[in-house]
From TrEMBL:
Domain Type II secretion system protein GspG C-terminal per the UniProt entry, residue ranges: 45-116
Transmembrane stretches, start-end: 21-42
Listed name of the protein: Putative general secretion pathway protein G
Gene3D superfamilies in the record: Glycoprotein, Type 4 Pilin (3.30.700.10)
Pfam family, one: N_methyl
Signal peptide residue numbers: none
Length: 138
């Protein structure tokens, strides 16, 4: 406190005005910097949600594809639906603990030749896509 008063006295003696806050110009510069950072960061955060959903689809398709391959080894044919992989058979064996769902609540499909697919946000993803096979999502 004493040091503060001393600085005020020195400023008054030197003929300099005593400032108690930030000037309007300083505040505008800070607000401008914050706005610039926000315009760069917000689009990145918005696309992160979609990227995460596509990564989930990729993981789900690989999981269903593996379960369908095991089903085909045991039964000699691919299942009629993804739901069939989550149902227990006569031996009490299920190939999936639960039926995975697309991020929008839709269901995955499986064809007679074992191709797993799902449509999300207007794009169809399937187990034959190279990026899905490699573990990617886009």
């Amino acid at each position: 406190m004493r040091k503060e008063k001393l600085m005020v006295k020195i400023r008054k003696l030197a003929g300099k005005p005593v400032r108690n806050g930030f000037s309007l110009l300083e505040m505008l510069v800070v607000v401008g910097i914050i706005l610039i950072l926000a315009t760069v960061a917000v689009p990145k955060f918005m696309s992160a949600g979609k990227t995460a959903k596509i990564a989930k689809i990729s993981a789900d398709i690989r999981t269903i594809d593996n379960a369908a391959a095991l089903y085909e080894i045991d039964k000699g044919k691919y299942p009629d639906s993804v739901a069939a992989l989550a149902e227990k058979d006569s031996d009490g064996k299920a190939y999936l603990q639960f039926e995975p769902r697309l991020p929008d609540g839709g269901t995955y499909e499986i064809s007679a030749d074992g191709v797993v697919s799902g449509t999300f946000d207007g794009k169809t993803y399937n187990s034959q896509m190279q990026d899905i096979k490699n573990g990617g999502g886009q």
